[in-house]
């Protein structure tokens, strides 16, 4: 931590800062410039926060130097992690050596729709199946999902087609039941700051897919992951899904810079969801290709056998034709970048 | 709803849209321009959403015309509402005729701190007392609040100083206990999209203070209020607390345009929290004055007897001197704008 | 300046930074923490920039400590400035003791329209008259202004109604001719980064009204003012006019926090333009009141005798009724805040 | 155009809108819903703007339906364009069949530096050489470029290494001299709204590289291109270079969704500049790969033989090692996506 004193700060003001830091057991190094004095603090940064240094007379600014997250940082865990999803023997990896396709409909609507979407996804190279049973909607009048029945369908279809399944949990009270059916628990973008939910999934004994909030900084996103990790669960996959900007031609602006930037600072794998970012089908395949090329550890897309009949987000769902185009990219690009496509482990159990 | 056809759309494409709308029981009015055809839809807008018109061949765009919220809209409830907080006989109003000051510390830290802050607040003209017991924090390592003990202190001090109290509830599972102690339940900015929590406070039998999410549009904010209202609770006070922008000189950018804009479209009262928006004390009093002048129905500020000892957000808390400056504005400005300062009802019970 | 070394930086890396700084004539103070080393730099900050310290091995980050602007900073010019507009003997002040109303139509359309708008403005308490002759438009197909003829009308009407005039200059090549007619040269929001224009108005011998760019940080805005100041012209009035955000209910989001924040760091006066920020008439009067209350040194509004016939920005122009409402605020609020309304000097010449 | 009437609009209000539209020679189609009436307008949209329909009694909103740009739209020019840069016989194409690498230092510093950077760039597969002579800087105290001498060096080195050159022009008064030396005139991000400059380059007889403003919508960007096109110059290459968001880990947030979205609506080629977007070297190669994969028609990167000695933007410049990594991507990815790397034409002149 660095304390920057105001130009008019007195020697007494500087001494006051130093005294408080030392009373907390820290060390304070004073550098006097011509117009400004700066004080470098060494010791327990968390404790320094309680000093409210910014409120002291003569203090102009306080800069934090080190990252506030610890468990998810690469600082003490330099190697990038691989998270393995699904039952032993047919786990699907998400990590630095693979690029895993996650596909399926936005919402589970019926067994038939789900099965058809799953078969399409599998043919395209998907390793994991997605589908929403509890739907977080902006409007209380929109389709809210099939709930428990949706979970059962999803799990059955995942079993039938050989793909572990991922689904969203929107309420801490539902974590138990969702964890019975899902292999990967998704925390959605609008719940990234719901700390009760983060703690509940941190204790559920399942890997977690944590979406970035639509206006979250990278640091806030990693702090949300830290909430999960702190409860003993380090099997976290981060998912970039677009941020809110002023542009209205697409729903959100996919932030692909976040992928290498987060991979540089955290050991957790990072996947990208171009479907929810774009909100329109014609951008999904180009953005999925870009996601693979930027180095994402996986890509998650919406798929629907009949987008015009979808109960949720039809305009962004890939149909068969678009999905085949994506399949080509999923086959060709990862090898060109030194990765393999993520699929169930073939190693002897 | 208006459907805009693409320049190359055929007569068949237009007929297809019309047929689907009519099959849903709606009417479709076709306007053929030189290069474009537009189709005006009349009927059940919610049903039209399920048509996924955007996915149909020849459709370029779909514009929604009417507001998606109903219960909180002024369309069928033209008069602006007043929400009354606290026990019968000494309720404090928040509505178009008053400008109510809500003050208190960010976090309840101890009985002494709370009592002192309450007395300062009351002297400054506050009608309601605030204080956090369950704290939503970005970092799992930050002070998380005193919990139940904090609620008890807050309620006692509110009772002792004659002010109804407002406190945040961060988890749907805590709504019951918080509602036992609090007169006004706050849903914080990062939980604006937590629909389970919105529904729970909608059923708790207490007025709700709903903060705007830091990147929420006005429409999304009102849809969150609609979630509360749909559960039968229309005693909702909206609170603008700053949005996230690129500017780093203050924590958030207070959006005062939102106050008259929301008041024009919703009947709910709107208050402003300049403390959390600014994150620095020197901006709080000017922004509080501006909030009153723009027509806010109330202002909520952080107050602490000793900001340098605060366990939470010390740098933004008003101390005694700044609070007295605010008190002057709270006394002078509302009358100059045709309002009175919000205080307990003096009407015979 | 503070250099933060990466966790794995070696002693050699630290020594390399120190050596480069010392070779530039600076001093480097090293503070060694448990996991990080920080180096405080003292000396010529501008020179340090050329060291590209961020590119050196072991350097994690470089924080600048002091403001990059000098001439417009309060650091060496603590007292806030007053800029005086217009010919000697009837100058209108913009500064900390007054709150000056600037009003007039977006565009000069005809002598009649201009005269009527000027009389309305004057009745409402305006001290300065605005009107556009060279119009910066997003579309090349929109009305581009009357040019020289518009300048003549504006100057004549200003003379006839006793108000100094302000008008925009959009091209460095036009600065000479505009300066012949205008008392205050406006640099528009989209030209805030047009350094050639900034330098040209800096040499024109007239006060400058510098609008904030729609996505400019406070620091960038002050750096643009520094470009003007560096050419010898310190008669600069800053104008906040809204920033671009994700909200679409109004054209831009007026950032009133900028007013006290800039006044704290720069000695230049700051006025606010709520008309261009909001883009809709119903928000202009509330936002103008808020601007006065937040401490703005002036307010600038669009006025048109017949908004439905305006050639530019009709939907945001105040008509007679709305203007009278504003006039009340301009009369009442400044005195309640210890200021007088800005009007021509009545001091003996 | 669609006019949406307010819920309380009267028949007279509707008739008034219709009458005004018809007086302008347009047609108005009225669709009456249960709670709202909408009016579809057919005819000369530009003329309708002058009606100020938004200011009329009973009008709630006005939606524009068609794009406001014409010359750069695909509507009347469906095929995507290829712009050819450089002297006849060795022109370098930028268009849908190629992916062209543009590389070079941010600023021309000396003949030696420029020559070395050019040779590095050429080895990496660059078809065009970049280098700044007139530098737009946020600070008046920063290096402003070598000016005319820089242009001479750039042109000489381009000639010597066989690459056409691109350089920025920051002032309309400099267009003539820059056009004598440069094959492609760059208009920088902060000048995207400088209409005088846009018109000047539109008349200069050289292709133009138009960067997107850091907070420009796609529509505003294309309107800026329309300003150039309207002066008779359709040889325009658009360049995405990042938008301003709240994220501070990188300088700007590269918006790769803009590439396919603009290509869908405009026939102009689109290239991407990941160096200025990221502002840090470690993100440049991943983002360049993503740019190619998303379908950009070219990529422009900063290159410097010794980034730690660069006079401008050293921290983002690729050194030899990073450039070789990029070269691999430039060789492999375009063919995997059905394109060839952009290089001088080998077709017989």
TrEMBL record, chains A, B, C, D:
Superkingdom to which the source organism belongs: Bacteria
GO terms of molecular function: 3-deoxy-7-phosphoheptulonate synthase activity; aldehyde-lyase activity
Domain DAHP synthase ferredoxin-like: 1-66
The entry's keywords: Transferase
Enzyme Commission number(s) from the entry: 2.5.1.54
PANTHER family, per database record: PHOSPHO-2-DEHYDRO-3-DEOXYHEPTONATE ALDOLASE (PTHR43018), PROTEIN AROA(G) (PTHR43018:SF1)
Protein name: 3-deoxy-7-phosphoheptulonate synthase
Source organism of this protein record: Nocardioides flavescens
Gene encoding the protein: aroF
């Amino acid at each position: 931590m660095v304390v920057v004193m105001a130009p008019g700060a007195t020697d007494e003001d500087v001494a006051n800062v130093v005294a408080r830091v030392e009373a907390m057991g820290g060390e304070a190094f004073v550098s006097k410039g011509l117009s400004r004095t700066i004080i470098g603090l060494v010791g327990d940064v968390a404790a320094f926060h309680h000093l409210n240094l910014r409120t002291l007379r003569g203090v102009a600014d306080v800069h934090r130097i080190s990252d506030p997250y610890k468990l998810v940082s690469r600082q003490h865990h330099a190697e990038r992690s691989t998270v393995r999803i699904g039952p032993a023997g047919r786990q699907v990896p998400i990590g630095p050596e693979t690029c895993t396709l996650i596909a399926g409909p936005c919402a589970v609507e019926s067994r038939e729709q789900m099965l058809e979407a799953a078969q399409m996804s599998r043919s395209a190279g998907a390793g994991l199946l997605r589908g929403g049973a509890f739907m977080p909607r902006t409007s209380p009048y929109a389709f809210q999902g099939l709930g428990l029945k949706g979970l059962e369908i999803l799990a059955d279809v995942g079993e039938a087609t050989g793909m572990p399944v991922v689904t969203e949990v929107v309420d801490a009270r539902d974590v138990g039941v969702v964890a019975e059916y899902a292999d990967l628990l998704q925390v959605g973008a609008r719940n990234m700051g719901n700390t009760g939910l983060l703690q509940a999934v941190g204790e559920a004994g399942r890997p977690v897919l944590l979406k970035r909030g639509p206006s979250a900084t990278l640091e806030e996103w990693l702090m949300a992951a830290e909430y999960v990790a702190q409860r003993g669960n380090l099997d976290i996959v981060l998912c970039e899904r677009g941020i809110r900007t002023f542009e209205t031609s697409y729903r959100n602006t996919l932030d692909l810079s976040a992928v290498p930037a987060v991979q540089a600072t955290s050991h957790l794998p990072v996947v990208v969801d171009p479907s929810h970012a774009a909100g329109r089908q014609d951008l999904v395949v180009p953005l999925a290709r870009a996601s693979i090329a930027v180095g994402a550890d996986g890509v998650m897309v919406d798929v629907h056998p009949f987008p015009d009949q979808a109960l949720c987000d039809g305009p962004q769902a890939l149909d068969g034709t678009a999905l085949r185009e994506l399949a080509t990219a999923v086959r060709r690009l990862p090898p060109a970048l030194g990765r393999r496509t993520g699929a169930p482990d073939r190693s002897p159990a």
